Give the backbone structure.
Amino acid sequence: MVLADRLAEVLNTIAATAKRAGRADGSVTLVAVSKTFDADTIRLAIAAGQRVFGENRVQEAQAKWPDLKQETDDIELHLIGPLQSNKAADAVALFDVIETVDREKIARALASEIERQGRTLRLYVQVNTGLEPQKAGIAPDDAVAFVDFCRNELKLTIEGLMCIPPAGENPGPHFALLQKLAAEAGLAKLSMGMSGDYQTAVEFGATSVRVGSAIFGER
Ligand SMILES: *Cc1c(COP(=O)(O)O)cnc(C)c1O
């Protein structure tokens, strides 16, 4: 299958799963994760109509996306990987959505860069639902207070929560936890689900899924 066919298949699967789950048409956004793939491969997805993309490294994205964004004006680029505060200025300049806000230091760095650059960014708080020591994300118990802090103290636009369940575990309980925390925090958006589990995520209320290899191929 060529890329456009794999993209169409993922979009069809999302639509069918959402429909079966009784969810409205268009209630799930596909974030096509293009990390490690070059600009010409990404152009195939853009030519096929895809507009929302995810990258996990600021530097890699800087090498590909300024040109791609120039070529197509309605691209929406998401940062889905960990962010260091010394990269906050670059991230704010390039990305439209940052999904990995997970600590006070990075939230403060983003707030000051957003103000300095006069940009409007939508942000997600990443939650470490599996409490994995090596994984980014705020602990579930601290998530609601952190969202409140970002909104009230820093005046950031927190749109939703994001999680990456532990590899090899049933993702359902993690998606359910993220949904519960978002409801408690008064957030409507849930970024969850990857190539291996995006159908489950849609069943658990994902409003966006981050799918890479099912579209672009193995990395
Ligand atoms: C790479 C990545 C994805 C996509 O993973 P696939 O299994 O290729 O779909 C999704 N989310 C994050 C945070 C990633 O780093």
